[in-house]
Amino acid sequence: MNENSKKYLNEFKLYIEIERNFSKHTVTAYGSDILSFLIWLNNRSIEEVTYNVIREYLVYIQQFNYSKTTTARKIASLRTFYRFLYRERIVQTNPALGIHSPKRGKTLPEFLSESEIEQVLNNIKMDSPAGYRNRTILELLYATGMRISELSNLNFDNLNLDENEIKVFGKGAKERIVLVSQRAKKFLETYIKTVRYLIYKEENPQKSAPVFINKTGYRLQPQSVRLAINDVMQKIELPKHVTPHVFRHSFATKMLENGADLRVVQELLGHSSISNTQIYTHVSTERLKQSYNLAHPRAN
Questions:
Q1: Catalytic residue among 147, 185, 196, 249
Q2: Could you say which of 105, 182, 229, 260 would form a disulfide bridge with 255 (CB–CB 3.0 to 4.6 Å)?
């Protein structure tokens, strides 16, 4: 990979992080995708790349048997990269025009029933400060539908518990308000008043301080929450792959099943498009069909 390519890659990462407000996860993923492409190019110049060269690269990566989702992201990375280069007049034409992502089959999101949620929550040991913190986090994820990255980034000045509200910043730094149930609020208040100090002895934290911390006082990272969930799931027999995002899916599904308006759920989830929220109506319909097939004498 030549020096110019390295420079353009660094400028591209700054562009998507600062100007486009992409999440840290997306910046890392896109950066890795473009790095792989530039390594494949070897000493060939970015300016020399044509539509056929990109097609050649896409044929090359097929040998790795990436999922359709991963392949689609790699194509999106290339398209965004060359749009950036064209905008900056580094290339005269955009060779990624006409490159389309593979069609991804719609899969219904995994979710948990209320009894399964309780099974997970009740198996979290709360005999330690970290255990109580983890229980509080999962209570909040289920009560609010927040993404784990949004929860990790919470500061004290985001909380308005008198009104059962939390301000979060979603994808693209979009601000929204999520609502907190009384049960989750009680867990959070106890954590803030008592448990947080036991994790890291910090009196009167500033409003800009992170709500959820580790034992060194630094912001708790999403990976730590994933590890806590994995630890719980190893102890209980539940035939589902449970991640922090499953709590978000479960929140949305339960809201719609209980009659919430689709637009309200869209707002609470922070979806930019209603089509992203509509998949949960399919989940609810699927459960209705299952219940019908089990209960109706002439269903089969």
A1: 147
A2: 260
Instruction: Catalytic residue, from 44, 167, 226, 271: name it.
Output: 271
User: Is residue 22 exposed (0-12), middle (13-18) or buried (19+ Cβ within 10 Å)?
Assistant: buried
133 given a catalytic annotation? no
Q: What is the DSSP string of 3-60?
A: HHHHHHHHHHHHIIIIIS---HHHHHHHHHHHHHHHHHHTT--GGG--HHHHHHHHHH
Q: Does 191 qualify as catalytic in the annotation?
A: no
Q: Which of 8, 15, 30, 280 is catalytic?
A: 280
Active site (annotated) includes residue 249: no
Q: Which of 13, 79, 196, 248 is catalytic?
A: 248
What CATH number matches the domain at 3-87, 3.40.250.10, 3.40.630.30, 1.10.150.130, 3.40.50.720?
1.10.150.130
Question: Residue ranges of the domains in the chain?
Answer: 3-87, 114-294
271 an active-site residue? yes
Q: Is 89 a catalytic residue?
A: no
Distance in Å from the first CA to the final CA of the chain: 61
- Clarify whether 6 is annotated catalytic: no
- CATH code for 114-294? 1.10.443.10
